[in-house]
Specification:
The complex is a heterodimer of chains A (177) and B (584). Helix content of chain A is 41%, strand content 12%. Chain A is of the alpha/beta class. A five-stranded mixed beta sheet of chain A has the order 2-1-3-4-5, covered by helices on one side. With 584 residues, chain B is an alpha/beta fold. Chain B folds into five domains: 91 residues, 3-Layer(aba) Sandwich (Glutaredoxin), CATH 3.40.30.10; 209 residues, Rossmann fold; 85 residues, Ubiquitin-like (UB roll); 89 residues, Up-down Bundle (de novo design (two linked rop proteins)), CATH 1.20.1440.230; 55 residues, 2-Layer Sandwich (Alpha-Beta Plaits), CATH 3.30.70. Chain B is built from 24 helices and 15 strands. In chain B, helix 7 packs antiparallel against helix 8 and helix 17 packs antiparallel against helix 21. The radius of gyration of chain B is 26 Å and the shape is globular. Classes of the chains: A alpha/beta (177), B alpha/beta (584). Chains A and B meet through helix 2, helix 4, helix 5, helix 6 and helix 7 of A and helix 1, helix 4, strand 9, strand 13 and helix 17 of B.
């Protein structure tokens, strides 16, 4: 596979003389390409005079880095304590089954990558899943099919970035107060 | 300006439409020509998840809080409250809201949900950076002494005295020193650092500046979790604003003291919350812990003396400097001073962030701010405190006061503040397995006890939850747990066995049920659930039918539910939906 590495070269130049720059550099390269390719690793090793094995060591240590291309949408299913107690594992199992992938894998049509995440830090609206940059709180298995459909059909769903959706619509003000 | 509207646009608020609510207020104010006499403030999370929270503050009615506000309610609020000065009773925050805040002492969280976190002027108006000014007028020894006398201890979990930590770095002679803020909040179930960074980032920067001054550091880093993009954004904005105002940068407030602060984003590794691993990660390497000593205060970042403090710890500092050590030390217990923020989650009515004085009992936290159990039909079984490093405590220990010593005595640890309440629908063996699987996945693999020992413990727990456990397994778990605790290299391994050890100690009967009777009393462990409807308990309500995603539950009004196993995927949605414990 041929990859245009000119953007990677620019990023390398930006971090060339900075202390402790390897991780931010890899983060930036992943932001550009969606993953860190072996070509990019070769280039960093050559340019910054570090062993490729050192770069691989860092890449494989941190869960945030990918060595293969990702799906168009990344689904992260929170497996934090609160989400676990509220049924987060069942959401993850259901999605893996439905998409036909293991956790960490990408669907054949490259539309979805499925991931588990230790905690998204919004335990008050557990269980939570995150699609790209959007949060979906109080999620139930029944909500998942519609959600997948939305990201399969609607190309504009990326415009929702950063939003938080409350799937549990019934939360009117309790009458008992 | 006296007339103000606060709209809480934190994570939970946004999920319920807070952006729309704020936008509606903006357009209503403009339509009424009130845009200049009213201030609309977008605040961070206040701590309580109540969908959209809105406060309207006027000289006449004072402060009125509304909860569960929907975008379509804004017109009514404007018409009645803003135009006519009458509160809208229907939407007023109720007794649960009052109860949630009544039992709290908010110090670290004092600004969260009160001010616009992206506006440094709002922070300054509430004595922001006044503590830094005061500290710069004191000697380094005086600042350290003040913090020492306040009794403040590390809020990241271990509870090391903060003043002493500063003193150790201060005493080191070096051409360069570093100040690091540990914002790698990785404990599943804890989110106080996120809320502080998102809701009041300047309080953390001010704490860092004071610490850096006291220890003699001129470079600072905030190591923030990559999963918190909003916190990173707000921190960067706050650093820029503070530098422009002269609270950071060269020659701060003319004192001759300089400090630059950078934000470093983590890359997804729980172990990086451990201080030596965190520093390795900042240096660009694999985040693996190193043996201590040497301690970071002697040889830390790039081999230089370094102080590492947690977000919540730093957010307390400015209050201590401003109001004095004596005031801070008057809150809490003899050995644990001040307050602690807990992320209250699980099966309680009010979930969210709660800041309580040390020494409050677990029961008072659950039934005070927590508002009691969410499902009145289900009894409380226990609590999980301290995340994967902590433990599960049974109902009989609910009167334990929350302070470092008392919690440690139970076998759990205070930890970073995760606090999950569990009712009878939670299986404690499964919870132990859950935490072990987390710790195993996050173990860096450097030391054998953690890499191999925890893995073996997890395998045994998986065996038990699958109904294949034997009596010897319990002995093995206890023995291995103690060995790993004693021999692992860092805190992750030292505390990793805690969830298994505490559940075996306090919930022995559940282990017994799994091993001897091949039964999971909470119907959580899938291999031990038959998915049969108990017609003595079934009330024919149909909730299970509505929850089932595959149509496996057969039900008609006034009939018992029935589960067709060919269609069942064992997702347990029906069990979660049932209020009567009728599906086994």
């Amino acid at each position: 596979m041929n990859i245009d590495l000119s953007e990677a070269a620019k990023a390398i130049d930006k971090y060339r003389d900075k202390k402790g720059a390897l991780i931010p550099l890899l983060q930036e390269i992943q932001d550009i390409y969606g993953y860190v390719s072996s070509q990019a690793i070769g280039m960093i090793a050559h340019e910054l005079n570090i062993y490729p094995v050192h770069i691989y060591g860092v890449l494989t240590f941190y869960t945030q880095f990918y060595l293969t291309p990702r799906g168009k949408h990344t689904i992260k299913v929170c497996q934090g304590t609160a989400c676990h107690v509220m049924g987060g594992k069942e959401l993850l199992d259901y999605l893996a089954d439905k998409l036909g992938v293991e956790v960490g894998e990408t669907t054949e049509d490259r539309n979805f990558s499925l991931e588990r995440v230790a905690c998204l830090g919004c335990c008050g609206i557990a269980p939570v899943i995150m699609v790209d940059e959007d949060f979906y709180g109080r999620c139930t298995i029944k909500d998942l099919d519609a959600l997948l459909d939305k990201y399969t059909e609607d190309d504009s769903s990326g415009s929702l970035n950063g939003n938080v959706h409350n799937l549990h619509k019934k939360r009117n003000k309790p009458k008992s107060n | 300006m006296n007339n103000r509207i606060l709209v809480c646009v934190g994570t939970s608020g946004v999920s319920a439409g807070a952006e729309k609510v704020a936008a509606n207020f903006r357009s209503e104010l403009e339509q009424r020509g009130l845009g200049d006499s009213w201030e609309l403030v977008r605040t961070g999370d206040r701590g309580l998840f109540r969908d959209v929270l809105v406060d309207i503050i006027t000289p006449e009615l004072g402060r009125v809080t509304y909860e569960f506000v929907k975008p379509e309610d804004v017109a009514e609020l404007c018409e009645k409250h803003i135009a006519r000065g009458e509160a809208v009773e229907r939407l007023k925050a109720g007794s649960d809201y009052e109860k949630f805040f009544a039992g709290q002492t908010r110090i670290a969280l004092s600004n969260c949900g009160e001010i616009d976190p992206e506006d440094i002027e709002a922070y300054i108006a509430l004595d922001g950076y006044a503590a830094l000014k005061k500290a710069l007028g004191m000697t380094q020894e005086q600042v350290i002494d003040e913090v020492k006398r306040s009794g403040l201890r590390g809020r990241g979990g271990a509870g090391f005295p903060t003043g002493l930590k500063w003193e150790l770095t201060w005493k080191e002679k070096s051409d360069e020193k570093y100040m690091v803020c540990n914002a790698d909040e990785g404990d599943p179930g804890a989110f106080m650092d996120r809320s502080i960074l998102e809701g009041d980032p300047h309080s953390v920067l001010e704490g860092m500046a004071i610490a850096a001054y006291a220890t003699g550091a001129n470079h600072g880093y905030v190591y923030c979790r990559a999963e918190y993009p909003l916190a990173v954004k707000r921190l960067r904005k706050a650093i820029t604003q503070a530098t422009q105002k002269g609270y950071l940068g060269e020659n701060i407030l003319g004192s001759g003291f300089s400090l630059d602060i950078q934000v470093k984003e983590g890359a997804g590794a729980f172990v990086c919350g451990e201080e030596t691993a965190l520093m390795a990660s900042i240096e660009g390497a694999r985040g693996m812990p190193k043996p201590r000593p040497p301690y970071p205060s002697q040889s830390g970042l790039w081999g230089k003396p370094t102080t590492i403090n947690n977000v919540e710890t730093l957010a307390n500092v400015r209050h201590i400097i401003l109001r004095g050590a004596q005031w801070y030390a008057s809150i809490g217990t003899e050995k644990s001073k001040g307050t602690k923020v807990f992320a209250l989650a699980g099966k309680v009515k009010n979930t969210g962030l709660v800041e309580i004085p040390m020494g409050t009992t677990i029961r008072d936290l659950i039934f005070g701010p927590g508002g009691g159990m969410v499902n009145r039909r289900r009894k409380i079984k226990g609590i999980q405190i301290g995340g994967p490093s902590g433990g599960c405590l049974p109902e009989s220990l609910l009167d334990t006061p929350i302070d470092y010593e008392s919690i440690t005595k139970t076998g759990a640890i205070m930890g970073s503040g995760g606090f999950v309440v569990m009712d009878t629908s939670t299986c404690m063996v499964d919870i132990a397995r859950f935490f072990l699987s987390f710790t195993v996945a996050e173990s860096c693999g450097k030391c054998v006890p953690c890499r191999v020992g925890l893995q073996r413990m997890l395998e045994v727990l998986e065996k038990i939850t699958a109904g294949k456990g034997t009596a010897e397994d319990l002995e093995f778990l206890a023995k291995m747990g103690e060995s790993v605790k004693d021999t692992a290299l860092c805190g992750l391994g030292n505390t990793g066995p805690n969830p298994a050890i505490t559940t075996m100690k306090y919930f022995a009967d559940e282990y017994k049920a799994h091993i001897e009777e091949k039964r999971c009393p909470a119907h959580v462990c899938v291999d031990l659930v038959d998915f049969e409807v108990d017609e003595e308990k079934c009330t024919k309500c149909g909730l299970c039918f509505k929850a089932c995603p595959t149509g496996a539950v057969q039900w008609k009004p006034k009939e018992f539910a029935r589960i067709e196993m060919e269609k069942c995927i064992k997702c347990k949605a029906c069990i979660a939906a049932c209020n009567f414990d009728a599906i086994h």
